[in-house]
């Protein structure tokens, strides 16, 4: 069974990280000392206007990622990856928490970039966190408090999609192609307010696959699907399961394990195995 799983900030909530709701246009907490919301900080405009505030936030944000401990959802993702004949995680997250979970390897597509990658805004030279680790944060260069690329002589910035920036087209195309060949598409901890997720849904269903949508507020006809451009026939094919990632994903892993080993299948998952 080929499984593609779309994950977002919701799978990190039990790790103490804030989640973002694009429908509301805000995060669930400010996480910033000056009282400025994350949405106002994570912009290329602030990096130019007030780099000290930006890099101070970014330093603290990366520290929270470094100490975050994987939860039950992250462990379950690894279990599901091992049970599937082919597994791809398409994530909106730019942390590495999932890779600190159980040992194992699975293919991961990062739509919004990675927090430990950086690049020059001018010449596009890339840098790793190891390169930047030797610089003091907040950084100081020419008294302006910014990182400068010695080649492009422009600002170095995190290689992540900020507010109002588009996702990587290359990564999106890879994910869309994978959705079209997946037997099961699982959406967990990711908001359907992002239109590209609905494109994944259509690609999987059009190819005869199945879709599971996991959300604490899910219902048989999730309101965000009803407000989307998806037609009613498509929406009725989506199985909405109410629950948190930490509760539902381990149950899904157990369900797939029973199926793979020929045991009696039971549970809330209405999958055509």
Summarize this structure as a short list of keywords or feature phrases.
Rossmann fold; 273 residues; 19% strand; 2 domains; 6-stranded parallel beta sheet; 11 strands; alpha/beta; SIR2/SIRT2 'Small Domain'; 3-stranded antiparallel beta sheet; single chain
Plain-language structure description:
This protein is 33% helix and 19% strand. By secondary structure, the protein is of the alpha/beta class. The chain folds into two domains: 2-17 and 70-112 and 166-260, Rossmann fold (3-Layer(aba) Sandwich); 28-67 and 116-160, SIR2/SIRT2 'Small Domain', CATH 3.30.1600.10. The strands form three sheets. It has a six-stranded parallel β-sheet with strand order 5-4-1-9-10-11, with helices on both faces. A hairpin with a 5-residue loop joins strand 6 and strand 7 (126-128). It starts with a strand and ends in a 13-residue tail after the last helix. Mean pLDDT is 76; it is low at 136-145.
Named at the architecture level, the CATH assignment of the largest domain is 3-Layer(aba) Sandwich
Low-pLDDT segments, ≥5 res: 136-145
Percent of residues in helices comes to 25-40%
- How would you classify the helix and strand content by structural class? alpha/beta
Do you know the CATH topology of the largest domain? Rossmann fold
Mean pLDDT: 76
Portion in strands: 15-25%
Mind summarizing the main beta sheet?
A: 6 strands, parallel
Q: What is the H/E string?
A: EEEHHHHEEEEHEHEHEHHEH
Shape from CA axes?
globular
In total, the number of domains comes to: 2
Give the full name of the CATH homologous superfamily of the largest domain.
Answer: TPP-binding domain
Biggest sheet: strand arrangement? 5-4-1-9-10-11
CATH class type of the largest domain: Alpha Beta
């Amino acid at each position: 069974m080929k499984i593609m799983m779309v994950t977002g900030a919701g799978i990190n909530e039990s790790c103490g990280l804030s989640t973002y709701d694009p429908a509301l246009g805000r995060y669930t907490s400010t996480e910033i000392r000056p009282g400025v919301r994350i949405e106002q900080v994570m912009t290329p405009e602030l990096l130019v206007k007030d780099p000290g505030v930006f890099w101070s936030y970014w330093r603290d944000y990366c520290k929270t990622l470094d100490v975050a401990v994987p939860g039950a959802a992250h462990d379950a993702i690894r279990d599901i990856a091992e049970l599937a004949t082919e597994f791809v995680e398409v994530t909106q997250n730019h942390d590495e928490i999932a890779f600190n979970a159980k040992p194992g390897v699975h293919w991961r597509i990062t739509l919004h970039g990675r927090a430990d990658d950086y690049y020059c805004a001018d010449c596009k030279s890339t840098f790793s966190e190891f390169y930047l680790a030797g610089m003091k944060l907040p950084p100081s260069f020419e008294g302006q408090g910014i990182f400068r690329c010695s080649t492009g002589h422009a600002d170095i910035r995190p290689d992540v999609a900020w507010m109002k920036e588009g996702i990587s087209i290359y990564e999106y195309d890879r994910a869309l192609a994978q959705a079209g060949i997946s037997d099961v598409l699982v959406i967990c901890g990711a908001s359907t307010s992002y239109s590209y997720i609905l494109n994944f849904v259509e690609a999987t269903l059009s190819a005869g696959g199945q879709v599971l949508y996991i959300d604490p507020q899910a219902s048989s006809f999730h309101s965000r699907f009803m407000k989307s451009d998806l037609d009613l026939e498509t929406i009725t094919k989506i199985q909405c399961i109410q629950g948190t990632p930490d509760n539902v994903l381990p149950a899904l892993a157990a369900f797939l394990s029973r199926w793979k080993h020929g045991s009696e299948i039971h549970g809330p998952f209405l999958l055509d195995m």
